[in-house]
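Lab notebook, bench 4. The sequencing result for the construct came back, and we need a structural model before the next group meeting so we can plan mutations. Quick request posted to the team channel:

Model the 3D structure of this chain.
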Amino acid sequence: MTDAAAIFAHVKQSGAGAPLYLRLRKSIEDAVSRGALLPGDALPSERDIAASADISRVTVRKAIQDLVQHGVLVQRHGSGTFVAPRMERVEQSLSRLTSFTEDMARRGLDVRSVWLDRGVYAPSPEEMMALGLSAEAMVSRVSRLRIANDTPLAIERASISAGFLPDPNAIGSSLYAALEARGCKPVRAVQRISATNLGEADAELLEVTPGSAGLNIERISYLPSGKVVEFTRSVYRGDAYDFVAELRLGTGEGIAP
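Done. Here's the predicted structure in token form:
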């Protein structure tokens, strides 16, 4: 019996009284915790796990999907199911306006991007409204997958008036650095965060299961003059990011009993 098969062999004898899928889930979690399954290790197929544990493939699928939803496992289309990389959750302050590159650099993480789109387009009605553009204006769109320590964390889709950024191909690792070089780096922003379930395309890019929890983040950034310079819609992995805000009691306000 292989080491992987041994993990599943005694599922029926463990956790008496608990549903079989929960027993299998615990067996896999325990194997990950004690190092019998390491980050990046591939799990056997559903068929093989079902045969080793003497349970149905439906039960195996339910246990695996549960672990994927909780970030213990990841599924890659056409490749199989793997133990998820160990990843510390990233905390980002809501009180500072920083770029993804700056955030990750402060944490000592290796950052890279995969470009999904860079081009100049006629603006959509949403971009016209957010950026204050006329129908005749053009907009630079930059979309990229943001990766830290080989883990995809976010998909950023930014729109900037072509007047501020005529050539999106001039962007290196940081959009804000490119804007600063042109004298139009934003100094403040309004950001809206909402929960979402990731669709199939975004989930595949972020290497999670479709329907996994994510965060939609919409940001409008402003120049010192008050003019809008950036309209960005991002999707972040819900299992990797925490947004933190410091709250202060207003001057002269008491605390209700």
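The chain has two domains: 3-83, 90-244.
Will bring this to the meeting.
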